[in-house]
Amino acid sequence: MSREPEEIHDPDHEIRLSRVAAIDVAKASGKVCTRLPHPTQPHRRVTLVWDVVSTNELCALAQRLVTDQIERVVLESTGDYWRPFYYILEAHGVTVWLVNANDVKQVPGRPKTDKLDAVWLAKLNERGMLRPSFVPPKAIRDIRDYTRLRHDLVADRTRYKLRLDKLLEDALIKLSTVATNFLGLSGRAMIDALVAGERDPRRLAELALGKLRVKRPALVEALTGRFDDHHATIAAVLLQQIDALDVEIDKLTVIIDQLIAALPPTGTGEDCPPAAHQPSVLERLDEIPGVGPRVAQIIIAETGGNMAQFPTAGHLVSWTKLSPRTMQSGSKTRRGPTGRGSPYLKSVLGDAAAAAARTDTFLGERYRRLVKRRGKARALVAIARSILTIVWHILADPTASFIDLGPDHYATHINKHRKTRSLIRQLEALGHTVQLNPA
Q1: What's residue 323's pLDDT?
Q2: Could you report the per-residue pLDDT of 185-214, keeping only the tens digit for each?
Q3: Greatest pairwise CA separation for the chain in angstroms
Q4: How far is the C-alpha of 244 from the C-alpha of 426, rounded, in Å?
Q5: Sign of the alpha-carbon torsion through 284, 290, 291, 294
Q6: How far apart are CA 12 and CA 6, in angstroms?
Q7: Whether 398 contacts 278, CB under 8 Å
Protein backbone atom coordinates (compact mmCIF):
# COMPACT_ATOMS: atom_id res chain seq x y z
CA MET A 1 0.00 0.00 0.00
CA SER A 2 1.46 3.35 -1.07
CA ARG A 3 0.71 6.54 0.89
CA GLU A 4 2.48 8.84 -1.56
CA PRO A 5 0.83 10.08 -4.77
CA GLU A 6 1.87 7.96 -7.74
CA GLU A 7 1.70 9.14 -11.33
CA ILE A 8 -0.04 6.76 -13.72
CA HIS A 9 0.91 7.44 -17.31
CA ASP A 10 -1.88 7.27 -19.86
CA PRO A 11 -1.41 4.83 -22.73
CA ASP A 12 -0.76 6.27 -26.16
CA HIS A 13 -4.27 5.45 -27.37
CA GLU A 14 -5.95 7.52 -24.62
CA ILE A 15 -5.94 10.82 -26.50
CA ARG A 16 -8.94 13.13 -26.73
CA LEU A 17 -10.02 13.93 -30.26
CA SER A 18 -12.34 16.62 -31.61
CA ARG A 19 -13.48 15.08 -34.90
CA VAL A 20 -14.50 11.45 -34.56
CA ALA A 21 -16.90 8.90 -36.03
CA ALA A 22 -18.26 5.52 -35.03
CA ILE A 23 -20.17 2.78 -36.83
CA ASP A 24 -22.49 0.33 -35.13
CA VAL A 25 -22.20 -2.61 -37.50
CA ALA A 26 -25.04 -5.02 -38.28
CA LYS A 27 -25.45 -7.73 -40.92
CA ALA A 28 -27.35 -5.70 -43.50
CA SER A 29 -26.33 -2.13 -42.64
CA GLY A 30 -24.29 0.13 -40.41
CA LYS A 31 -25.39 2.99 -38.20
CA VAL A 32 -22.91 5.85 -38.62
CA CYS A 33 -22.40 8.61 -36.06
CA THR A 34 -20.10 11.59 -36.44
CA ARG A 35 -19.26 14.14 -33.72
CA LEU A 36 -17.77 17.41 -34.90
CA PRO A 37 -17.12 20.77 -33.18
CA HIS A 38 -20.10 23.14 -33.27
CA PRO A 39 -19.46 25.98 -35.77
CA THR A 40 -20.58 28.75 -33.35
CA GLN A 41 -20.49 27.30 -29.82
CA PRO A 42 -16.93 26.33 -28.84
CA HIS A 43 -17.83 23.79 -26.12
CA ARG A 44 -20.59 22.03 -28.01
CA ARG A 45 -20.58 19.12 -30.49
CA VAL A 46 -22.69 18.45 -33.57
CA THR A 47 -23.83 14.82 -33.65
CA LEU A 48 -25.12 13.33 -36.89
CA VAL A 49 -26.49 9.80 -37.27
CA TRP A 50 -27.50 7.97 -40.46
CA ASP A 51 -27.57 4.49 -42.05
CA VAL A 52 -25.22 3.01 -44.62
CA VAL A 53 -26.49 -0.02 -46.53
CA SER A 54 -24.82 -0.61 -49.92
CA THR A 55 -21.20 -0.71 -51.03
CA ASN A 56 -21.66 2.52 -53.01
CA GLU A 57 -22.95 4.25 -49.88
CA LEU A 58 -19.97 2.93 -47.96
CA CYS A 59 -17.56 4.40 -50.54
CA ALA A 60 -19.45 7.70 -50.35
CA LEU A 61 -19.16 7.53 -46.55
CA ALA A 62 -15.38 7.15 -46.82
CA GLN A 63 -15.19 10.26 -49.02
CA ARG A 64 -17.38 12.20 -46.59
CA LEU A 65 -15.24 11.22 -43.59
CA VAL A 66 -12.14 12.39 -45.44
CA THR A 67 -13.86 15.67 -46.32
CA ASP A 68 -14.98 16.20 -42.69
CA GLN A 69 -11.37 15.59 -41.57
CA ILE A 70 -12.40 12.79 -39.23
CA GLU A 71 -9.41 11.89 -37.10
CA ARG A 72 -10.50 8.37 -36.19
CA VAL A 73 -13.34 5.93 -36.88
CA VAL A 74 -14.12 3.06 -34.52
CA LEU A 75 -15.95 -0.18 -35.32
CA GLU A 76 -17.24 -2.76 -32.91
CA SER A 77 -15.98 -6.25 -33.76
CA THR A 78 -19.35 -7.82 -34.54
CA GLY A 79 -18.81 -11.21 -36.19
CA ASP A 80 -17.32 -10.70 -39.65
CA TYR A 81 -19.67 -7.85 -40.54
CA TRP A 82 -17.01 -5.24 -39.72
CA ARG A 83 -14.65 -6.37 -42.47
CA PRO A 84 -16.09 -4.45 -45.48
CA PHE A 85 -16.35 -1.25 -43.40
CA TYR A 86 -12.77 -1.60 -42.17
CA TYR A 87 -11.24 -2.52 -45.52
CA ILE A 88 -12.96 0.20 -47.57
CA LEU A 89 -12.30 2.95 -45.04
CA GLU A 90 -8.69 1.84 -44.70
CA ALA A 91 -8.28 1.91 -48.48
CA HIS A 92 -9.42 5.57 -48.49
CA GLY A 93 -6.76 6.54 -45.95
CA VAL A 94 -9.09 6.84 -42.95
CA THR A 95 -7.70 5.88 -39.54
CA VAL A 96 -9.88 2.98 -38.41
CA TRP A 97 -9.90 1.20 -35.05
CA LEU A 98 -11.51 -2.16 -34.45
CA VAL A 99 -12.53 -2.34 -30.78
CA ASN A 100 -13.52 -5.26 -28.59
CA ALA A 101 -17.21 -5.51 -27.76
CA ASN A 102 -16.32 -5.94 -24.07
CA ASP A 103 -14.90 -2.41 -24.05
CA VAL A 104 -18.14 -0.82 -25.28
CA LYS A 105 -20.72 -2.65 -23.22
CA GLN A 106 -24.24 -1.29 -22.87
CA VAL A 107 -24.56 1.20 -19.99
CA PRO A 108 -27.27 0.20 -17.48
CA GLY A 109 -30.34 2.42 -17.51
CA ARG A 110 -29.98 3.53 -21.15
CA PRO A 111 -32.33 2.28 -23.86
CA LYS A 112 -30.78 -0.14 -26.34
CA THR A 113 -31.05 1.07 -29.94
CA ASP A 114 -28.63 1.13 -32.86
CA LYS A 115 -28.73 4.94 -32.91
CA LEU A 116 -27.85 5.28 -29.23
CA ASP A 117 -25.18 2.59 -29.55
CA ALA A 118 -23.52 4.52 -32.38
CA VAL A 119 -23.61 7.77 -30.39
CA TRP A 120 -22.18 6.04 -27.31
CA LEU A 121 -19.41 4.48 -29.39
CA ALA A 122 -18.56 7.90 -30.86
CA LYS A 123 -18.40 9.48 -27.38
CA LEU A 124 -16.05 6.77 -26.15
CA ASN A 125 -13.89 7.34 -29.22
CA GLU A 126 -13.89 11.10 -28.62
CA ARG A 127 -12.71 10.74 -25.02
CA GLY A 128 -9.98 8.19 -25.74
CA MET A 129 -11.64 5.43 -23.71
CA LEU A 130 -11.16 2.63 -26.26
CA ARG A 131 -8.30 0.31 -27.12
CA PRO A 132 -7.66 -0.74 -30.72
CA SER A 133 -7.65 -4.40 -31.62
CA PHE A 134 -4.81 -5.79 -33.71
CA VAL A 135 -5.69 -5.99 -37.41
CA PRO A 136 -2.70 -7.11 -39.53
CA PRO A 137 -1.88 -5.64 -42.96
CA LYS A 138 -3.51 -7.05 -46.07
CA ALA A 139 -0.64 -9.40 -46.97
CA ILE A 140 -0.87 -11.06 -43.55
CA ARG A 141 -4.67 -11.08 -43.69
CA ASP A 142 -4.52 -13.04 -46.94
CA ILE A 143 -2.13 -15.59 -45.42
CA ARG A 144 -4.32 -15.80 -42.33
CA ASP A 145 -7.39 -16.62 -44.45
CA TYR A 146 -5.49 -19.42 -46.19
CA THR A 147 -4.04 -20.90 -42.98
CA ARG A 148 -7.38 -20.78 -41.20
CA LEU A 149 -9.11 -22.46 -44.14
CA ARG A 150 -6.42 -25.15 -44.21
CA HIS A 151 -6.78 -25.63 -40.45
CA ASP A 152 -10.54 -26.09 -40.85
CA LEU A 153 -10.11 -28.51 -43.76
CA VAL A 154 -7.65 -30.58 -41.73
CA ALA A 155 -10.22 -30.73 -38.94
CA ASP A 156 -12.87 -31.83 -41.47
CA ARG A 157 -10.51 -34.52 -42.79
CA THR A 158 -9.93 -35.76 -39.26
CA ARG A 159 -13.70 -36.06 -38.75
CA TYR A 160 -14.03 -38.14 -41.91
CA LYS A 161 -11.19 -40.39 -40.75
CA LEU A 162 -12.91 -40.90 -37.41
CA ARG A 163 -16.15 -41.76 -39.21
CA LEU A 164 -14.28 -44.30 -41.32
CA ASP A 165 -12.72 -45.83 -38.20
CA LYS A 166 -16.16 -46.00 -36.61
CA LEU A 167 -17.51 -47.72 -39.74
CA LEU A 168 -14.71 -50.31 -39.59
CA GLU A 169 -15.47 -50.93 -35.92
CA ASP A 170 -19.10 -51.50 -36.87
CA ALA A 171 -17.90 -54.15 -39.33
CA LEU A 172 -15.70 -55.73 -36.60
CA ILE A 173 -12.54 -54.65 -38.47
CA LYS A 174 -10.03 -53.69 -35.74
CA LEU A 175 -7.37 -52.30 -38.06
CA SER A 176 -6.69 -49.21 -35.92
CA THR A 177 -5.77 -51.40 -32.93
CA VAL A 178 -2.84 -52.92 -34.84
CA ALA A 179 -1.76 -50.09 -37.16
CA THR A 180 -1.01 -46.77 -35.47
CA ASN A 181 -2.05 -44.93 -38.64
CA PHE A 182 -4.82 -47.04 -40.14
CA LEU A 183 -4.84 -44.79 -43.23
CA GLY A 184 -1.12 -45.14 -43.97
CA LEU A 185 0.13 -46.90 -47.07
CA SER A 186 -0.59 -50.38 -45.67
CA GLY A 187 -3.90 -49.50 -44.05
CA ARG A 188 -5.16 -47.63 -47.11
CA ALA A 189 -4.29 -50.57 -49.37
CA MET A 190 -6.25 -52.94 -47.10
CA ILE A 191 -9.28 -50.65 -46.94
CA ASP A 192 -9.24 -50.18 -50.73
CA ALA A 193 -9.13 -53.96 -51.12
CA LEU A 194 -12.08 -54.32 -48.77
CA VAL A 195 -14.04 -51.78 -50.79
CA ALA A 196 -13.09 -53.62 -54.01
CA GLY A 197 -14.58 -56.84 -52.65
CA GLU A 198 -11.69 -58.70 -51.03
CA ARG A 199 -12.80 -60.35 -47.77
CA ASP A 200 -10.04 -62.91 -47.07
CA PRO A 201 -8.15 -61.60 -43.98
CA ARG A 202 -4.95 -63.45 -44.93
CA ARG A 203 -4.77 -61.86 -48.36
CA LEU A 204 -5.54 -58.49 -46.81
CA ALA A 205 -2.77 -58.95 -44.23
CA GLU A 206 -0.28 -59.67 -47.03
CA LEU A 207 -0.76 -56.08 -48.21
CA ALA A 208 1.15 -54.85 -45.15
CA LEU A 209 4.36 -52.95 -45.87
CA GLY A 210 7.52 -52.22 -43.91
CA LYS A 211 7.45 -52.73 -40.15
CA LEU A 212 3.79 -53.69 -40.24
CA ARG A 213 4.61 -57.01 -41.93
CA VAL A 214 5.85 -58.47 -38.65
CA LYS A 215 2.31 -57.94 -37.32
CA ARG A 216 0.63 -60.06 -40.00
CA PRO A 217 -0.78 -62.61 -37.50
CA ALA A 218 -2.38 -59.77 -35.53
CA LEU A 219 -3.62 -58.21 -38.77
CA VAL A 220 -5.34 -61.44 -39.73
CA GLU A 221 -7.25 -61.37 -36.46
CA ALA A 222 -8.03 -57.65 -36.79
CA LEU A 223 -9.28 -58.03 -40.39
CA THR A 224 -11.61 -60.91 -39.59
CA GLY A 225 -15.05 -59.32 -39.42
CA ARG A 226 -18.36 -58.90 -41.23
CA PHE A 227 -17.51 -56.20 -43.77
CA ASP A 228 -20.28 -56.27 -46.41
CA ASP A 229 -21.37 -54.26 -49.45
CA HIS A 230 -23.20 -51.74 -47.27
CA HIS A 231 -19.96 -50.95 -45.43
CA ALA A 232 -18.03 -50.83 -48.72
CA THR A 233 -20.37 -48.21 -50.20
CA ILE A 234 -20.08 -45.92 -47.19
CA ALA A 235 -16.30 -46.45 -46.93
CA ALA A 236 -15.90 -45.48 -50.61
CA VAL A 237 -17.77 -42.21 -50.01
CA LEU A 238 -15.65 -41.40 -46.96
CA LEU A 239 -12.41 -42.20 -48.79
CA GLN A 240 -13.43 -39.90 -51.65
CA GLN A 241 -14.04 -37.07 -49.19
CA ILE A 242 -10.66 -37.66 -47.53
CA ASP A 243 -8.85 -37.73 -50.89
CA ALA A 244 -10.58 -34.54 -52.04
CA LEU A 245 -9.63 -32.77 -48.83
CA ASP A 246 -6.03 -33.97 -49.20
CA VAL A 247 -5.87 -32.33 -52.63
CA GLU A 248 -7.29 -29.01 -51.40
CA ILE A 249 -5.02 -28.98 -48.35
CA ASP A 250 -1.97 -29.53 -50.56
CA LYS A 251 -3.05 -26.67 -52.85
CA LEU A 252 -3.44 -24.31 -49.90
CA THR A 253 -0.05 -25.34 -48.54
CA VAL A 254 1.63 -24.40 -51.82
CA ILE A 255 -0.08 -20.99 -51.83
CA ILE A 256 0.83 -20.35 -48.19
CA ASP A 257 4.47 -21.28 -48.82
CA GLN A 258 4.65 -18.83 -51.72
CA LEU A 259 3.00 -15.97 -49.82
CA ILE A 260 5.18 -16.38 -46.74
CA ALA A 261 8.32 -16.59 -48.87
CA ALA A 262 7.34 -13.24 -50.43
CA LEU A 263 7.03 -11.48 -47.06
CA PRO A 264 9.74 -8.92 -46.21
CA PRO A 265 12.14 -9.72 -43.33
CA THR A 266 10.64 -9.07 -39.91
CA GLY A 267 12.16 -7.45 -36.86
CA THR A 268 11.77 -4.37 -34.71
CA GLY A 269 15.41 -3.39 -34.51
CA GLU A 270 16.30 -0.70 -37.04
CA ASP A 271 19.98 -1.11 -36.27
CA CYS A 272 19.92 -4.84 -36.96
CA PRO A 273 20.05 -5.28 -40.74
CA PRO A 274 19.54 -8.84 -41.95
CA ALA A 275 22.83 -10.66 -42.36
CA ALA A 276 23.86 -12.42 -45.52
CA HIS A 277 22.65 -16.03 -45.80
CA GLN A 278 20.40 -15.46 -42.79
CA PRO A 279 17.97 -18.37 -42.22
CA SER A 280 14.35 -17.59 -42.98
CA VAL A 281 11.80 -16.95 -40.26
CA LEU A 282 10.24 -20.37 -40.81
CA GLU A 283 13.62 -22.07 -40.44
CA ARG A 284 14.38 -20.24 -37.20
CA LEU A 285 10.94 -21.00 -35.76
CA ASP A 286 11.30 -24.64 -36.82
CA GLU A 287 14.27 -24.94 -34.43
CA ILE A 288 11.92 -24.64 -31.43
CA PRO A 289 10.95 -28.06 -30.03
CA GLY A 290 7.38 -28.91 -31.01
CA VAL A 291 7.15 -26.22 -33.70
CA GLY A 292 7.01 -27.54 -37.26
CA PRO A 293 6.61 -25.70 -40.56
CA ARG A 294 2.80 -25.62 -40.42
CA VAL A 295 2.76 -24.42 -36.82
CA ALA A 296 5.28 -21.71 -37.73
CA GLN A 297 3.10 -20.61 -40.65
CA ILE A 298 0.05 -20.26 -38.41
CA ILE A 299 2.09 -18.32 -35.82
CA ILE A 300 3.19 -15.85 -38.50
CA ALA A 301 -0.34 -15.56 -39.90
CA GLU A 302 -1.98 -14.98 -36.52
CA THR A 303 0.62 -12.66 -34.95
CA GLY A 304 1.54 -10.77 -38.12
CA GLY A 305 5.19 -11.78 -37.96
CA ASN A 306 6.21 -8.23 -36.96
CA MET A 307 6.48 -7.75 -33.21
CA ALA A 308 6.32 -3.94 -33.39
CA GLN A 309 2.74 -4.04 -32.02
CA PHE A 310 3.88 -6.16 -29.05
CA PRO A 311 6.49 -4.20 -27.02
CA THR A 312 7.43 -7.22 -24.91
CA ALA A 313 6.93 -10.96 -24.90
CA GLY A 314 4.47 -10.48 -22.06
CA HIS A 315 2.27 -8.34 -24.31
CA LEU A 316 2.17 -11.11 -26.91
CA VAL A 317 1.36 -13.74 -24.29
CA SER A 318 -1.38 -11.55 -22.83
CA TRP A 319 -2.85 -10.86 -26.28
CA THR A 320 -2.91 -14.60 -26.98
CA LYS A 321 -4.75 -15.10 -23.66
CA LEU A 322 -2.21 -17.50 -22.20
CA SER A 323 -1.77 -15.53 -18.97
CA PRO A 324 -4.49 -15.04 -16.33
CA ARG A 325 -5.80 -11.61 -15.48
CA THR A 326 -4.86 -10.18 -12.08
CA MET A 327 -7.83 -8.88 -10.13
CA GLN A 328 -6.96 -6.98 -6.93
CA SER A 329 -9.26 -5.28 -4.46
CA GLY A 330 -7.99 -4.11 -1.08
CA SER A 331 -5.78 -6.81 0.39
CA LYS A 332 -7.20 -9.57 -1.80
CA THR A 333 -5.67 -10.61 -5.10
CA ARG A 334 -7.07 -13.33 -7.27
CA ARG A 335 -6.64 -14.61 -10.79
CA GLY A 336 -9.31 -13.79 -13.31
CA PRO A 337 -10.25 -15.63 -16.50
CA THR A 338 -7.71 -15.61 -19.30
CA GLY A 339 -10.20 -14.89 -22.10
CA ARG A 340 -10.63 -16.51 -25.51
CA GLY A 341 -7.88 -15.21 -27.77
CA SER A 342 -7.30 -16.65 -31.23
CA PRO A 343 -8.56 -20.25 -31.26
CA TYR A 344 -6.28 -21.09 -34.19
CA LEU A 345 -3.14 -19.80 -32.47
CA LYS A 346 -3.98 -21.35 -29.11
CA SER A 347 -4.77 -24.66 -30.78
CA VAL A 348 -1.42 -24.99 -32.56
CA LEU A 349 0.47 -23.76 -29.48
CA GLY A 350 -1.24 -26.49 -27.47
CA ASP A 351 -0.19 -29.07 -30.06
CA ALA A 352 3.37 -27.70 -30.05
CA ALA A 353 3.47 -27.82 -26.24
CA ALA A 354 2.27 -31.43 -26.21
CA ALA A 355 4.94 -32.37 -28.75
CA ALA A 356 7.69 -30.49 -26.87
CA ALA A 357 6.67 -32.19 -23.61
CA ARG A 358 7.74 -35.55 -25.07
CA THR A 359 11.21 -34.37 -26.09
CA ASP A 360 14.49 -34.64 -24.19
CA THR A 361 14.97 -30.85 -24.18
CA PHE A 362 14.70 -27.96 -21.75
CA LEU A 363 11.01 -27.54 -22.55
CA GLY A 364 10.40 -31.26 -22.08
CA GLU A 365 12.14 -31.22 -18.68
CA ARG A 366 10.22 -28.07 -17.71
CA TYR A 367 6.96 -29.86 -18.47
CA ARG A 368 7.96 -32.90 -16.41
CA ARG A 369 8.83 -30.67 -13.45
CA LEU A 370 5.59 -28.69 -13.65
CA VAL A 371 3.23 -31.61 -14.24
CA LYS A 372 4.10 -33.12 -10.85
CA ARG A 373 2.64 -30.24 -8.88
CA ARG A 374 0.38 -28.37 -11.31
CA GLY A 375 -1.22 -31.10 -13.40
CA LYS A 376 -1.12 -31.80 -17.13
CA ALA A 377 -3.41 -29.01 -18.32
CA ARG A 378 -1.60 -26.17 -16.54
CA ALA A 379 1.80 -27.62 -17.37
CA LEU A 380 0.93 -27.63 -21.08
CA VAL A 381 -0.28 -24.03 -20.89
CA ALA A 382 3.00 -23.07 -19.23
CA ILE A 383 4.98 -24.76 -22.02
CA ALA A 384 2.82 -23.03 -24.66
CA ARG A 385 3.58 -19.72 -22.98
CA SER A 386 7.31 -20.51 -22.98
CA ILE A 387 7.16 -21.37 -26.69
CA LEU A 388 5.36 -18.11 -27.42
CA THR A 389 7.99 -16.16 -25.47
CA ILE A 390 10.70 -17.79 -27.58
CA VAL A 391 8.71 -16.93 -30.71
CA TRP A 392 8.58 -13.27 -29.72
CA HIS A 393 12.35 -13.05 -29.30
CA ILE A 394 12.96 -14.76 -32.66
CA LEU A 395 10.49 -12.55 -34.54
CA ALA A 396 11.59 -9.36 -32.77
CA ASP A 397 15.26 -9.86 -33.62
CA PRO A 398 16.06 -11.03 -37.17
CA THR A 399 19.49 -12.25 -35.99
CA ALA A 400 18.19 -14.32 -33.06
CA SER A 401 18.12 -18.11 -33.18
CA PHE A 402 16.94 -20.76 -30.74
CA ILE A 403 19.50 -22.40 -28.46
CA ASP A 404 18.26 -25.25 -26.28
CA LEU A 405 19.39 -25.01 -22.66
CA GLY A 406 19.29 -28.78 -22.36
CA PRO A 407 17.32 -31.10 -20.07
CA ASP A 408 19.97 -30.80 -17.34
CA HIS A 409 19.63 -27.02 -17.07
CA TYR A 410 17.72 -27.13 -13.79
CA ALA A 411 20.04 -29.72 -12.25
CA THR A 412 23.19 -27.74 -13.10
CA HIS A 413 21.81 -24.35 -12.06
CA ILE A 414 20.59 -25.07 -8.54
CA ASN A 415 21.82 -23.33 -5.40
CA LYS A 416 23.75 -26.22 -3.84
CA HIS A 417 24.00 -24.65 -0.37
CA ARG A 418 20.26 -23.92 -0.22
CA LYS A 419 19.45 -27.42 -1.49
CA THR A 420 21.77 -28.93 1.14
CA ARG A 421 20.12 -26.93 3.95
CA SER A 422 16.69 -27.98 2.73
CA LEU A 423 17.59 -31.67 2.70
CA ILE A 424 19.19 -31.41 6.15
CA ARG A 425 16.02 -29.84 7.58
CA GLN A 426 13.92 -32.59 6.07
CA LEU A 427 16.11 -35.34 7.55
CA GLU A 428 16.18 -33.64 10.96
CA ALA A 429 12.40 -33.37 10.87
CA LEU A 430 12.32 -37.16 10.49
CA GLY A 431 14.45 -37.57 13.62
CA HIS A 432 17.89 -38.04 12.05
CA THR A 433 21.18 -36.38 12.96
CA VAL A 434 23.05 -35.25 9.88
CA GLN A 435 26.82 -34.95 9.61
CA LEU A 436 28.26 -33.72 6.30
CA ASN A 437 31.49 -35.19 4.96
CA PRO A 438 32.96 -33.61 1.81
CA ALA A 439 33.15 -36.03 -1.10
Answers
A1: 85
A2: 999 999 999 999 999 999 999 999 999 999
A3: 94
A4: 63
A5: positive
A6: 19
A7: yes
Of 101, 126, 151, which one is at a domain's C-terminal end?
126
pTM of the model: 0.83
* pLDDT tens figures, 369-406: 999 999 999 999 999 999 999 999 999 998 899 999 99
121 and 65 belong to one structural domain: yes
Q: Quick one: 375 and 316 in the same domain?
A: yes
Same domain as 309, residue 229: no
Could you tell me how many residues make up the chain? Answer: 439
> Residue 304 in contact with residue 134, Cβ under 8 Å?
yes
- CA pair distance 144, 252, nearest whole angstrom: 11
Cα–Cα distance for residue pair 34/46, rounded to 1 Å: 8
Residue 115 lies in a domain: yes
User: Could you tell me the residue range of the domain that residue 55 belongs to?
Assistant: 20-126
What is the domain-level CATH number for residue 45?
Answer: 3.30.420.10
Question: Which among 235, 218, 227, 228 is positioned nearest to 183, based on CA atoms?
Answer: 235
Question: Does residue 111 share a domain with residue 203?
Answer: no
